[in-house]
Design goal:
heterodimer; A: about 425 residues; alpha/beta; Rossmann fold; N-(1-d-carboxylethyl)-l-norvaline Dehydrogenase, domain 2; eight-stranded mixed β-sheet; three-stranded antiparallel β-sheet; 19 helices; about 45% helix; B: about 425 residues; four-stranded mixed β-sheet; 16 helices; 11 strands
Chain lengths: ~425, ~425
């Protein structure tokens, strides 16, 4: 597959800009960068260059606006739409692209969870076979995950060519997923994050948001604690993802996708997170340069200082991890029956079970769950988590002991039977917090 | 003299920043040693048993942990890895960026002299403990610090920028653009090779000839004279373990098809860069002692450049890899660009250099690099390099340098 010219529609958004950078660098393609406001597009070009740290790609980036969409599309081998996550907007663009694209071109959407099939149906019948979901994660330069979603119309050979292009040329970790709400990475990731948010509400008297983050921090196999991640992504995006999953799927964890009412309230007040100057957390900057990290207190509705929680189990785990004693750290976790350790372990076990479950529904291969969580979220992937805990415990027995309610709902053994050693090294993901 | 076999080993993922992970030297050594022994087919119990008969020793290569991690007496720290190392003879070896090659040399010597049966070499460096300018100053101690390092911002890029200047001066027929483009191509090859190496630091990074050859931009600023960031190897954290053994031990374990160290060269050039340059006046080579180390290794191995299938070299900067091409004998001195331009040193060329990505692509935790190179030679000649395997490689050669090509270490590894 030779892709020498690409059109990216919606380039002023974070994802559109960063993906244009991927096409222009690794893809070495001429990229038409389309946005609604040409001034904004022009301002975005330096950002694209920076996203891959290469001035050399600047010559590949051609700013354009929606008026020249048809001309750009007609000249392109690949069209990538990265517009607002709104089915009406996306189908309108698809209709325009469908009328202008070359019959040999390939078209894709960066939608993070809308129906790819519905968008495909906005294309003329003869072009539907050339349309795919191509969902990347932010920032794509450091997170190489690419969820590829063919539809029932997709050309199988073309799909394989596209997979090869994405993996070999663009260096993406390509995971083929079914056309299912939020696909696989966000389904697994936001199950975890949203349940953590529900627990923040449930344990609001213990501190709520920062309390839950403190017991699911980097020592549990991730770079960023889950609610900090939500704050980083934005509560509006978080809400859109979990609402979509809640409305359109019905699995055993259905209720864990309900957004807690306090979070809905924050969204309606425009308190979305880091991008709006505050959400679950709020960083206050003083004129003298000092900053203060505050957190939304669910009980009072006000922001207060983040509490430096001390949980003996977590403290000891961090010390063990600092010295590379992973097994000792997991022993602490499994053998500590404090409320915090039990919540922490139950989340890690639920993560393993839900990942295996969701992969059967949305993916094609058990390793898909590992690829999406390692390369899209930078979390210790589920099979590696299984391996990590296996160094100190019989994981299926542990799951039956700690998650009896889930075991009543689904045949856990069926899903665990698929577990196999991970190709990812769990040690990389368990961190003790930055060493000073 | 007895033969020295290589049993295998392991390197850590050079993409990792151990400070960000909140982990220190002991964690690094624990992971590297666990993986390294496993890679060599050994266990901690094997070490315990060997040590009962005083048959095993450890050789630690590290440049300057005293600065980066406030720790000396590094040979003693394997006792923190596992109790199996209690009582095992162990010491630290240092020669700047060639530190773990000195450790390999010491280890090989003990095997060759039949003093130990197993020699475990671990090279490591944690460099992300400090910001880059502070680290750059620490590294200045690999030069004559008072005269070439103290108070100078990023001394090493400047020294290797001077090497580029001197190369152009020494070979007046060498066109400047041709030279600078060859350096850019060297960078691109190393970045490209790193894409096949799952443990390379830059495996996700973008580099193109245009990016590498356009220096002095915001994303490719000049860092040392005419050299840009794209000409530099990257600071990173990491460790590499490689296990050597005697013929007796090999037979005892029933291993077959393990490669041997066929030859080595070790030469020390004047430490001051300017003296190095005035010293080369009578030589065709810009770095005559580097050339001599290669010749010594060829002589000891009874080989010449035509026998070598793959190279790993010390591309701390593109200008040092350029000089290495001539020192290996791949081209006449001064004509190194030929091997770059005609694809000889490319991954699919007749004499690939740095299939691992080298220091530019794979990363350069300074004290680990020599051991990492030796491990890569082992992988190549045993056909276990995975996606970056050079097909049919039987003999492989490495050049590891310390300082501004002051300490020069060469090893040739091959199947018997």
């Amino acid at each position: 597959m030779k892709i020498s010219t690409v059109t990216v529609i919606g380039v002023t958004g974070t994802m559109g800009a960063n993906i244009a950078g991927i096409f222009a660098s690794f893809g070495d393609a001429k990229v038409y960068c389309i946005g609604r406001d040409i001034n904004k597009v022009n301002k975005t070009i330096p950002r694209i260059v920076k996203s891959v740290k290469a001035d050399a790609i600047a010559k590949n980036l051609i700013p354009a606006d929606f008026d020249s969409l048809e001309a750009c599309v007609a000249d392109s081998d690949l069209i990538f739409e990265s517009s607002k996550e709104d089915i009406k907007v996306k189908t309108e663009i698809a209709t325009r692209v469908g009328k202008a694209m070359k019959p040999t071109a390939i078209s894709g959407t960066g939608s993070s969870g809308l129906s790819i099939t519905t968008i495909a149906e906005s294309y003329p019948e003869e072009l539907r076979s050339r349309f795919f979901g191509i969902h990347m994660f932010n920032p794509p330069y450091t997170l190489p995950l690419c969820e590829m979603t063919p539809t029932k119309y997709s050309d199988v050979e073309l799909k394989e060519e596209l997979r090869k292009y994405l993996s070999k040329k663009l260096l993406r970790t390509v995971v083929e997923v079914k056309d299912s709400p939020a696909f696989l990475g966000n389904r697994i990731g936001f199950q975890f994050i949203n349940e953590a948010l529900q627990y923040a509400e449930k344990y609001k008297d213990n501190g709520g948001i920062d309390y839950i983050d403190a017991l699911l921090g980097s020592f549990t196999g991730r770079t960023m604690a889950p609610l900090t991640t939500s704050d980083f992504v934005g509560l509006d995006v978080h809400k859109a993802i979990v609402d979509n999953i809640y409305d359109n799927t019905h699995d055993y964890a259905h209720e864990t996708f309900v957004l807690p009412s306090f979070a809905s309230q924050l969204v309606s007040e425009g308190k979305l997170g880091r991008k709006s100057g505050g959400g679950l957390y709020q960083r206050i900057k003083y004129e003298n340069g000092l900053t203060r990290q505050t957190v939304y207190d669910i009980n009072t509705g006000f922001y207060r200082d983040v509490i430096p929680y001390v949980f003996p189990f977590a403290d000891k785990m961090k010390k063990n991890i600092q010295e590379g004693d992973y097994q000792k750290a997991f022993e602490r976790l499994v053998n500590n029956y404090s409320q915090e350790a039990q919540i922490c372990l139950s989340f890690l076990l639920k993560y393993i079970v839900y990942s295996l479950y969701a992969t059967e529904e949305v993916g094609y291969d058990i390793t898909a769950a590992d690829d999406v969580m390692a390369t899209g979220f930078n979390w210790c992937p589920p099979l590696a988590m299984y391996q990590a805990l296996s160094t100190v415990a019989d994981v299926p027995v542990l799951i039956k002991e700690r998650l009896p309610e889930i075991c009543m709902k689904i045949d856990v053994d069926h899903y665990l039977a698929d577990a196999k050693p991970s190709k990812y090294d769990y040690r990389i993901y368990f961190k003790s917090g930055r060493k000073n | 003299m007895s033969k020295v076999y290589i049993l295998g080993g392991a390197q850590t993922d050079f993409e990792r920043n151990w400070t960000k992970e909140g982990k220190g030297m002991v964690a690094l050594l624990k992971e590297a040693m666990a993986d390294g022994l496993a890679g060599a087919g050994l266990t901690f119990d094997d070490v315990r048993e060997l040590n009962a008969g005083n048959r095993v020793a450890c050789f630690v290569g590290n440049f300057i942990a005293e600065k980066y991690t406030d720790q000396g007496h590094l040979g003693a720290f394997l006792t923190e890895v596992d109790k199996a190392f209690y009582g095992v003879p162990s010491a630290r070896y240092e020669a700047a960026c060639a530190s773990s090659s000195v450790a390999v040399d010491a280890a090989a010597t003990k095997i060759r002299a039949d003093e130990y049966d197993v020699a475990i070499v671990v090279g490591w460096e944690l460099m992300k403990t400090v910001e880059s300018r502070v680290g750059g100053d620490y590294l200045g101690r690999a030069a004559y610090y008072d005269k070439e390092g103290r108070g100078i911002d990023l001394p090493f890029p400047k020294l290797f920028g001077k090497l580029a200047d001197e190369t152009l001066k020494k070979y007046p027929d060498l066109d400047e653009k041709r030279y600078m483009d060859a350096l850019a191509k060297i960078s691109v090859i190393n970045y490209g090779n790193a894409k096949r190496n799952p443990l390379a630091q830059t495996r996700k990074w973008f580099m193109s000839f245009e990016q590498a050859s356009t220096r002095g931009t915001e994303t490719n600023p000049l860092v040392g004279g005419r050299l840009g960031v794209s000409d530099c190897s990257q600071v990173t954290d990491g460790a590499a373990v490689v296990v050597l053994c005697s013929e007796a031990y090999l037979k005892e374990r029933g291993y077959e098809n393990k490669p041997i160290i066929k030859g080595y060269g070790h030469r020390t050039a004047p430490i001051l860069f300017d003296k190095k340059m005035s010293d080369n006046a009578d030589s065709e080579y810009i770095l005559p002692w580097t050339r001599q180390a290669c010749l010594d290794a060829y002589r000891r191995a009874g080989m010449d450049v035509s026998d070598i299938d793959v190279f790993e070299t010390h591309d701390c900067f593109t200008s040092s890899e350029y000089a290495a091409i001539g020192a290996f004998g791949l081209t006449e001195p001064g004509k190194e660009y030929e091997a770059v331009e005609d694809g000889t040193i490319a991954f699919d060329g007749s004499k690939p250099i740095n299939p691992s990505g080298g220091l530019i692509g794979c990363g350069h935790p300074v004290g680990a690099s020599g051991a990492r190179m030796l491990l890569d030679l082992y992988k190549q000649v045993t056909g276990t390099a995975g996606e970056y395997q050079v097909s049919g490689a039987k003999n492989a050669m490495m050049l590891n340098i310390g300082g501004s090509a002051t300490t020069n270490y060469v090893f040739i590894v091959g199947v018997e």
